[in-house]
Design a protein that fits this description.
There is one protein chain. With about 180 residues, the chain is α/β, with parallel strands linked by helices. It has 2 domains: about 1-40, no CATH class; about 40-160, Metal-dependent hydrolases (TIM Barrel, Alpha-Beta Barrel). The protein is about 35% helix and about 10% strand. It contains 6 helices and 6 strands. It has helices spanning about 1-15, 25-35, 55-60, 90-105, 115-125, 145-155, and strands at about 20, 35-40, 40-45, 65-70, 105-110, 130. Strands 3-4-5-6 form a 4-stranded parallel sheet. Strands 1-2 form a two-stranded parallel sheet. α4 (about 90-105) links the parallel β4 and β5 (about 105-110). The longest helix has 14 residues, at about 1-15. It is elongated, with a radius of gyration of 17 Å.
Length: about 180
């Protein structure tokens, strides 16, 4: 399914002049300067590769530059953020991280369990990111937790981003932006 979606989007990019694929920061600047919509290919979970780590290279060649190692639930690679017990990165998950590193596909641990996040950082020879998340202490869902992750990365100069999606926060008040920070 992911390959078919990428193929369809690629066709749209080739046939619609207002679209362009963005793979570098220069591409983003070009899209902005030319008034185009920049498209980034990413996989929100590794299910499109099945158990075949060689497919990381296929998706890289298709333009995928970022892959989440889980999406909320347990898979053969890692535990998702909504699992009751986080067993960490599985042996196949270590292989996935190494395959992504080798193919220069960014490892994204958004929606991934905390132990799996930490294991991915340890297994990776390249930077690991949480592309989107919220401070666990301020959110109503575990799927957005980045508090511990950002504390661990602070000593190496990493900075968390802020994702402010209102439905993920308690509706007891009208929060200020400072409410959304841990």
């Amino acid at each position: 399914m992911a390959a078919e979606v990428i193929a369809w989007i690629s066709e749209q990019i080739e046939t619609r002049p207002e679209l362009m694929v963005c793979r570098t920061d220069d591409d983003v600047r070009t899209a902005k300067r030319e008034g185009k919509l920049g498209i980034f290919y990413r996989l929100q979970g590794p299910s499109p590769i099945g158990l075949d780590l060689d497919l990381v290279w296929f998706y890289k060649q298709a333009g995928v530059d970022l892959m989440q190692i889980a999406y909320n639930t347990r898979n053969p690679f890692a535990n998702g953020a909504t699992e009751r017990i986080d067993g960490g990165l599985r042996t196949l998950g270590v292989g996935l991280v190494k395959a992504c590193n080798s193919a220069l596909v960014i490892v994204d641990v958004s929606h991934t369990g905390e132990r799996s996040q930490l294991d991915a950082i340890e297994a990776s020879s390249e930077p690991v990111i949480i592309s989107h998340g919220n401070a666990f202490e301020r959110s109503t869902t575990r799927a957005t937790s980045l508090t511990r992750f950002s504390r661990l990365l602070r000593p190496v100069g990493a900075r968390p981003g802020l994702l402010a999606i209102r439905p993920l926060f308690p509706r007891t008040s009208s929060p200020r932006w400072t409410t959304w920070l841990a």
